[in-house]
Design a protein that fits this description.
The complex is a heterodimer.
Chain A (H helix, E strand, L loop, with lengths): L3 E8 L3 E8 L6 E6 L6 H12 L2 E9 L1 H8 L6 E5 L5 H4 L26 E4 L2 E2 L5 E3 L14 E4 L8 H9 L6 E3 H4 L5 H31 L6 E3 L5 E2 L1 H6 L7 H13 L5 E7 L4 E7 L2 E2 L1 E7 L2 E8 L1 E4 L3 H10 L12 H20 L7 E6 L3 H12 L3 E4 L6 H4 L13 E2 L8 E3 L2 E4 L4 E4 L3 E5 L5 E5 L2
Parallel strand pairs in A: 1-4, 4-11, 5-6, 5-9, 9-10, 13-19, 19-20
Antiparallel strand pairs in A: 1-2, 2-3, 7-8, 11-12, 13-14, 14-15, 14-18, 16-17, 20-26, 21-23, 22-25, 23-24, 25-26
Helix pairs in contact in A: 1-6, 10-11
Chain B lengths: L1 E5 L3 H12 L3 E5 L15 E2 L16 H6 L5 E3 L4 H13 L3 H15 L2 H11 L6 E2 L3 E5 L2 H4 L3 H9 L5 E3 L1 H7 L9 E5 L3 E3 L2 H14 L3 E3 L3 E7 L2 E7 L4 E3 L2 E4 L6 H7 L6 E10 L9 E4 L4 E6 L2 E10 L9 H13 L8 E10 L6 E4 L6 E5 L5 H17 L20
Parallel strand pairs in B: 1-2, 1-14, 2-10, 4-18, 6-16, 14-21
Antiparallel strand pairs in B: 3-9, 5-9, 6-8, 7-8, 11-12, 12-13, 15-18, 15-19, 16-17, 17-18, 20-21
Helix pairs in contact in B: 1-9, 1-12, 5-12
The chains are: A alpha/beta, B alpha/beta.
Chain lengths: 461, 415
C-alpha cells in the first residue's frame, strides 16, 4: 500500500506550484510547472499523481483565476436588484478618492460589473430596525437576461424577508448572490459591492473550477478544496455558493506559511515574491493578521481576509537584470540598477505596510519566499532594519505549503554556485540555490542552515 | 445615538465634533468649562513626530535624582513616592529598547494623521487660523550633545518622521534668537503648533454647542449599568440622566469611572507647569524643543510659552510654583535677551499611563461606552485622531488607525 499524500497546488501568475506531503510524515515532493503548460488544472494534477506514483488523500488548490477575472474585467456583468431609488449606488459609492490628485478617478464600481441597464429597483422597504415599512412589490421585476443576479435590498442584513422573496421569484438555476448572506453588515455600498463581486464570479467558478472537481472525482481522486482569503478552504460546492473569498486564495496561503515559520517570534513581516507580484503579510505572536477590507487593483471591498497586500512587482521583469548582475545563472542584458530600484521600492512598501499595523521592522523577522523573494530579502531587510531573515526550505513553493494542515517536511538542498552543498554557516557575499529559488547573502550578512532546512540570514554585528 | 461625552477638554471636544459628523446627539458633562484644566496651558505642540514615550532606555539610572532634586525636570514629591512607586516600576519596565520601539510605532500611527483629523473640525469651527504648520526645531548645545539622543531620533526617522540636521549657521539663519547658546539643531518641518491651545479647544467645543450639543456642568459620580449597557449617569448635583452611550474623555480624572466599566487602569497624573512670558520680545517662528533643558518653547499669541517639567504629586496637592520659576530661569539661560518683566504661571494635570500611550477603545464590560483618555504629554497632538477613531468605533466602522496597542484591557494581567 503506497502512502497517501496531502496535495497542495498554488496556481500563480507565472507558475503552478505543487507539494505532495505523505500523511504521517516523511519527505515531501515538490514540482513547479510554468503556468502556460498547466492551463488544465485537473490534467496537471492527474499527470503529477501518475508521474510521481502517488495517491492523494486531500487536494487543496489556490488559484489566481478569480482575482485576475476581477482585475481584468473578464468576470461577468451582474444584474442588480435593489430597493427602488438605490439604483445609482454603484456610481455614487462613498465619494472617496484614494488618489486626491487623480484627474480621472476610477469609479467605485467598475463599469463592466454594473451596466446601468442591468439595475432594477423594487418598491418595498425595511427600516434600520428590521421592520417592514412598505411591502415588496415583485410585479415590478421584469424578465431578466441570463446573467448572475445580485440582490441587495436596504437593511436586508436586519431583516432578509424581502431578499428571500426576490430569490424565490427568480427562475430556478439563476446564479444568485443575496447581500444578507454574502456580507450581512451595516453600510449599503459596501454590502452591495461585495454582493455584486460575489455574483460576478459565479459563472467563472461554475465554468472553470467546478469542472476541476468533477474531473478529479471522475479520475478516482478526492474532491479538491479551494483555499480562501481568510486562510480556510472550501469544497467546490461551497466555493460555487460563495465565490468571493476565492480572491486572494494564494496570498492567504502564503500568509499562513509565513505565520508558521514565524511562530516563535513576536512579530514578522512576510514577503512572498513570485513572477508577477509580491505579497506582503504580517504576523503577530505566530498568527497572520486579519483585515475586514481587501484592495484589489483599483477596487476596495469588504471581505474578511488575512491582511495581505499585493504589490505589482515580480521576478519576471527583474530576471534579465538579475542575470546581468550574476545573481542568477544565464545571460541577461538587463540593467543592474533596476534591482536596486526594485529593492528600494519594496523596502518602502514593506515599511509602510508593517507600520500601518504597528509592526516595527527593527523588532521583526523577515520571512522571504516565492521564486524571487530570497534573492532580494537581505537587501530589503538591511534597508528597513530587520535584523534577521528566514528563508524556508523550497522557498519557491512557500505559498503552497501554507495550504497543508501540517507543515510538510521539505528537502533542504542549498548549494553554493560551485555546486557544493551548503551546510553550517558562511559569511556573505554568497549565492545559494535550491532549485526553486536563489538566496542572496550580501556582504555584511551571515547565513546559517537550521536543522529544519530553513536558512537564517543575520546581519553581522 | 444620544451620547454623553464626559469631559470637555481637547479630547472630549474632538470626540464630540467627530461624533456630530455622524449625526449623534452629544451632551458634554464636565464640572469645568472647556479648556479650564489640562487643555488650557499646555505647550500647544501639534506634532506628528511626538511618538517617543516619556520613559526612554537608560532612564532607571536617573530615579534617585528625581527624589533628591525638587526643581529638576522630573521629580517625585517625597511623600508621594510610596504611592506612585508601583506605577514608576511599570513605567521603567516599558522603557526597554524593544518596548520603546513598539510604543513609538503605535504612537506614530496615532499621530501621523494629526492634521487630517484636525482640519475638518477646525474648518467647521472657522478656526483653522489657530493651527499653524511651521515646523519644530529640536536644539542642542552642540552636535556632540545631540548624540545622546541619537537613538530616539533614529527611531523617529525609521517611523517615517522627516527630521533634518541643521548646522550652526543655518540654525541662526532660521532663528536668530538662538544665536550663541545653540550650535546644532534638528528640524521637523512637518510639525505644527497652536497659537492658543485653550482657544483651539474652545473653538471646537463652541462649534459643537452651535451644532446642537448640550452642556451639563456637573461631575459624573457613577454610571448605571443594565443588561450590559450603560443606561444612566449619576451627577454630583444629585440628579441623574439617561443616556444611550458614553464616551469617557475625562483626562486625569477618568480612572474611577473607567474602573466601573472594566479592569483597573493605572492612570497617574504627571503635573506639568508653564510660564508664559507676556512681555515676549523674541521673533521665534518655530516651536523650539530645548532637549537638554527639557523644555518646549512655543511663541503663542498671548506670549512666549515655556512649558515642561514632570512632577508626581497626585491630583490634590497644591502646585509648587518654584517649578514654574525654574522653567523661567532656564528660559533666561536660553534667551539672555528675553524680556521677562510680565509673566504668568500655571500647573496642569497630564493623564499618564505607564507606557505613555492613551487608552482608546470600547469599555470592556459594556457595549455602549468608549474610553478616550490618558494622552499624557500628547493630548493636543492625539486628540483629533482619537476623536475620529472614537467616531469610527461608535459607528461600527473599522478604525483607520490600528487601535490594538491602546486597548483598555492591556493592563489587565498586572493590574
Amino acid at each position: 500500500m503506497r502512502p497517501r499524500h496531502a496535495l497542495a497546488l498554488d496556481q500563480g501568475g507565472s507558475f503552478l506550484d505543487i507539494i505532495a506531503a505523505p500523511e504521517g510524515g516523511g519527505p515531501a515532493r515538490i514540482a513547479k510547472r510554468p503556468r502556460a503548460e498547466a492551463t488544465d488544472l485537473a490534467a496537471a494534477i492527474i499527470d503529477f499523481c501518475q508521474a510521481e506514483r502517488l495517491t492523494p488523500a486531500r487536494i487543496t488548490i489556490a488559484t489566481t483565476l478569480p482575482a485576475n477575472a476581477i482585475l481584468t474585467g473578464t468576470a461577468s456583468p451582474v444584474v442588480l436588484i435593489t430597493t427602488q431609488g438605490f439604483e445609482d449606488l454603484p456610481d455614487l459609492g462613498r465619494q472617496s478618492r484614494r488618489d486626491p490628485d487623480a484627474l480621472d478617478p476610477p469609479p467605485p464600481v467598475p463599469a463592466w460589473l454594473s451596466p446601468p441597464k442591468l439595475r432594477f429597483g423594487l418598491p418595498g422597504r425595511i427600516d434600520a430596525r428590521g421592520v417592514e415599512v412598505a411591502p415588496l412589490d415583485l410585479t415590478a421585476l421584469p424578465a431578466l437576461p441570463d446573467l448572475p443576479v445580485a440582490a441587495c435590498l436596504l437593511f436586508a442584513h436586519r431583516n432578509p424577508t424581502h431578499e428571500r422573496a426576490v430569490a424565490a421569484a427568480l427562475p430556478r438555476g439563476t446564479a444568485l448572490s443575496l447581500s444578507h448572506r454574502v456580507d450581512p453588515e451595516t453600510r449599503e455600498f459596501e454590502r452591495l459591492l461585495a454582493t455584486m463581486l460575489d455574483a460576478s464570479l459565479k459563472p467563472l467558478v461554475a465554468r472553470t473550477l467546478a469542472p476541476v472537481g468533477q474531473a478529479l472525482v471522475a479520475a478516482g481522486l478526492p474532491e479538491p478544496r479551494f483555499a480562501l482569503a481568510d486562510g480556510r478552504a472550501a469544497s467546490p460546492n461551497e466555493a460555487l455558493a460563495a465565490p468571493l473569498p476565492l480572491v486572494l486564495s494564494g496570498p492567504a496561503a502564503g500568509a499562513r506559511a509565513v505565520a508558521r515559520w514565524a511562530s516563535d517570534v513576536p512579530t514578522a513581516i512576510g514577503l512572498d515574491m513570485g513572477g508577477t507580484t509580491a505579497e506582503v503579510s504580517l504576523v503577530r505572536d505566530g498568527v497572520a493578521l486579519e483585515t475586514g477590507s481587501v484592495t484589489l487593483g483599483p477596487l476596495a471591498f469588504r471581505l474578511k481576509a488575512l491582511d495581505v497586500e499585493s504589490l505589482p512587482i515580480g521576478g519576471d521583469a527583474l530576471t534579465p537584470a538579475a542575470r546581468a548582475a550574476g545573481w542568477l545563472p544565464g545571460d541577461g542584458n538587463g540593467d543592474a540598477g533596476t534591482l536596486a530600484i526594485a529593492e528600494a521600492m519594496l523596502a518602502e512598501s514593506l515599511r509602510r505596510i508593517a507600520l500601518r499595523r504597528n509592526i516595527h521592522p527593527d523588532l521583526s523577522l523577515l520571512v522571504a519566499g516565492g521564486g524571487f523573494g530570497p534573492l532580494l530579502a537581505a537587501a530589503i531587510a538591511a534597508l528597513i532594519g530587520c535584523p534577521r531573515v528566514l528563508i524556508p526550505p523550497c522557498p519557491g513553493v512557500m505559498a503552497a505549503s501554507g495550504m497543508l494542515d501540517t507543515p510538510p517536511a521539505l528537502p533542504a538542498a542549498w548549494r553554493c554556485r560551485n555546486g557544493t552543498p551548503f551546510t553550517g554557516t558562511a559569511a556573505g557575499p554568497l549565492l545559494l540555490d535550491d532549485g526553486t529559488a536563489t538566496a542572496r547573502i550580501p556582504a555584511g550578512w551571515r547565513a546559517s542552515l537550521r536543522s529544519d532546512g530553513a536558512l537564517l540570514l543575520d546581519r553581522a554585528a | 445615538m444620544r451620547i454623553a461625552v464626559i469631559g470637555n477638554g481637547i479630547v472630549g471636544s474632538c470626540c464630540a465634533a467627530w461624533l456630530q459628523r455622524d449625526g449623534h446627539e452629544v451632551t458634554f458633562i464636565d464640572p469645568l468649562g472647556p479648556a479650564e484644566a489640562t487643555s488650557f496651558g499646555n505647550a500647544g505642540s501639534l506634532s506628528p513626530s511626538a511618538c517617543l514615550p516619556v520613559g526612554m532606555p537608560g532612564m532607571w539610572k536617573k530615579v534617585p535624582r528625581w527624589l533628591l532634586d525638587p526643581l529638576g525636570p522630573l521629580t517625585v514629591r517625597w511623600w508621594y513616592a510610596p504611592i506612585v512607586a508601583p506605577w514608576i516600576a511599570r513605567f521603567l519596565q516599558a522603557s526597554t529598547p524593544a518596548e520603546v520601539t513598539r510604543i513609538a510605532t503605535a504612537m506614530r500611527g496615532l499621530l501621523a494623521p494629526i492634521f487630517d483629523c484636525y482640519e475638518p473640525i477646525l474648518q467647521r469651527a472657522n478656526a483653522t487660523g489657530l493651527m499653524r504648520r511651521s515646523g519644530c526645531l529640536y536644539v542642542y548645545s552642540g552636535e556632540q550633545a545631540a548624540r545622546q539622543w541619537a537613538w530616539g531620533m533614529k527611531l523617529r526617522r525609521s517611523l517615517g518622521v522627516e527630521m533634518r540636521d541643521v548646522g550652526e549657521d543655518e540654525l541662526v539663519a532660521l532663528e536668530p534668537d538662538l544665536k550663541g547658546r545653540f550650535r546644532f539643531g534638528i528640524l521637523a518641518p512637518e510639525n505644527g503648533s497652536t497659537l492658543d491651545p485653550a482657544a483651539l479647544t474652545r473653538a471646537i467645543f463652541d462649534q459643537c454647542v452651535a451644532d446642537g450639543a448640550q452642556v451639563v456642568r456637573a461631575r459624573v459620580t457613577g454610571l448605571t449599568v443594565k443588561g450590559g449597557s450603560v443606561t444612566g449617569l449619576t451627577l454630583d448635583d444629585g440628579t441623574s440622566r439617561e443616556t444611550e452611550g458614553v464616551v469617557l474623555a475625562g483626562g486625569a480624572w477618568s480612572a474611577k469611572l473607567a474602573a466601573q466599566l472594566g479592569p483597573a487602569i493605572p492612570l497617574e497624573t504627571q503635573r506639568g507647569y508653564h510660564v508664559t512670558v507676556e512681555s515676549n520680545n523674541l521673533a521665534l517662528r518655530h516651536t523650539v524643543m530645548a532637549v537638554e533643558h527639557n523644555m518646549m518653547v512655543n511663541p503663542m499669541r498671548m506670549g512666549l510659552r515655556l512649558a515642561g517639567s514632570v512632577e508626581f504629586a497626585g491630583l490634590k496637592a497644591p502646585p509648587d510654583m518654584r517649578r514654574a520659576a525654574a522653567l523661567l530661569e532656564r528660559g533666561r539661560e536660553m534667551f539672555p535677551h528675553l524680556d521677562t518683566s510680565r509673566t504668568s504661571e500655571w500647573m496642569g494635570h497630564r493623564p499618564c499611563l505607564p507606557d505613555s500611550m492613551p487608552v482608546i477603545g470600547p469599555a470592556p464590560r459594556v457595549d455602549n461606552a468608549w474610553f478616550a483618555f490618558g494622552h499624557g504629554h500628547v493630548g493636543m497632538c492625539g486628540a483629533a485622531t482619537t476623536g475620529r477613531e472614537v467616531a469610527n468605533l461608535v459607528a461600527g466602522r473599522d478604525p483607520e488607525v490600528d487601535l490594538a496597542p491602546f486597548s483598555p484591557t492591556r493592563f489587565r494581567r498586572a493590574a
